[in-house]
Amino acid sequence: MSKISVTDRGKRGSLSKRIIYQTTEFTTSLGLRMGIEKSSLMCLLFHAVLPAQESKQSHTILPSLGLRIGQYRRIFEAFLKAGYIFVSAEMVCKGLPVNGKFIHVTFDDGYFNNVEILPLLKEYEIPAQIFVATTNVCLNRKFWWDVVYQCMYKAGKSQVEISSSIEQLKTRHHKDIFDYLVSEFGLTAFSPSSDSDRPLTPVELKALADDPLITVGNHTRDHIIMDRSSSDLMHEQVTGAQKDLTSIVGYEPFSFAFPNGNYNNDSIELLENTGFKLGFSCDFRLNNVKNDLLEKRRLKLGRFFFISSLDLDMQCRMFRVPNISPIVLAKRLRKVIA
Known about the structure:
Blueprint: H1 6-34, E1 40-46, E2 48-49, E3 66-67, H2 69-81, E4 85-86, H3 89-94, E5 101-109, H4 118-124, E6 128-132, H5 134-139, H6 144-154, H7 159-169, H8 174-185, H9 202-209, E7 214-218, H10 231-249, E8 255-257, H11 265-274, E9 278-280, E10 304-305, H12 312-320, H13 326-337
Parallel strand pairs: 1-5, 1-10, 2-3, 4-5, 5-6, 6-7, 8-9
Helix pairs in contact: 1-12, 6-7, 6-8, 10-11
């Protein structure tokens, strides 16, 4: 049997990606022309707002987590043109008309750079929700995945190596992650480099929460992955973040976003018992307005996030008809296998 070279495997991988991409373009465009788009609530997940131009701070946060203002504008305009209505968290809680296409915009983690999106939100009158990991805000601590990215990038590591390290660290306790990174890169690695990679301060978060377009939600204290944590740790992290946020913004959040999108039955029960009205996963799916906003289903609403290597306009189209998109279906399959 002849050996297959790394180059050959790379070419085959690239060919497979092109085929999936082209098939997605064809099926989603055909589906939209045929009118199979359904009434639904689409939730979009974002993290960061990148600087308008490249700068020395460009390699301080994971590139895949951010978009530039022009890209956000393209996304918002694409959905407005398609007849979608942007809705707030309160509107979702109160219930939405069965016949309609709705979008809810969310940002995870609590980056200061999120304030850069405000003028655009005001221009289009788009409400948004920001889910905050409170330890980073209270301690002005750089997010650990950005520590990994910045330090490994400086050391000349590839994107594949960086991503692999981040995924491996996700399996560990949050305190172990912190201790390990301090031992590897020093405590100063957790000091933000600029406004690009730092979290909001409590004062800034309060000001943001006071804006009528913004709702603040719970993202745990230390961005723990819920389905890999004990019941006691989940309870401590969720209720602790509730206390932090209530103290900072002046109200108790009614919505929660699962860090990394991971959840299980215990975490859903915790949200229900703690009184949360909404919960958001990273499941790549539309939400049925009639059924998914009822009972426990409202605590694990699906969200789409944009893949940095793919065309934005194509992704906007495939999110509208995800059940016939090979890329969406492949992502779901990988999640099931994982």
